[in-house]
Request: fold
Amino acid sequence: MGVVESWTRVMELLRETAPADHAELSGPATEEALQTAEERMGISLPEDLRAWLVRNNLDVPEEDFDDDVACCGFAGFPDEGMFFLGVRSMANLYANHATHGGINPPDQSDNPFWRNDWIPFLSDQDGWTGKFVDARDGRVGRWFVGNPTTAGEYESLAHYFDSVAEMLMRIAAGKHPVCSVVDGRLVWS
Reply:
């Protein structure tokens, strides 16, 4: 299954499970927003990431954007502490992590904290932890400031979205240990 099909499955499950949350999702990213982000980051968005963003750009509305917050996104999904980033937040967080030499620290190219080839798409509010797509091969990895970065946690963005869909199915069945649905919204305990 490709990224479009995997994301469509996630959206269908979210609409069925938490319709109030689903109704608040924003529309697609514009080509102008994608190009602006690519120019700002100095890197092309991988095909899968771009395909996802043209379906749902999860940036908060301009009037709700908070410059004092490292990251903004759709709160409460896919979990309580993390959220998907929209194009603007991706570019902002990327700028916070990018380094002049392309690898941080430069003497650890086999096990860096950050590579400029990694584009964040999921984060906590402070930008301390999250997931990224490796622009070199499309794999999804995870970073956490102060801990080793995990590259290749998922084979692709589609595989990651498949795991989100599985989580939503457990929530819908009442089998998730820390999430339930109240009034059409995901509620994390």
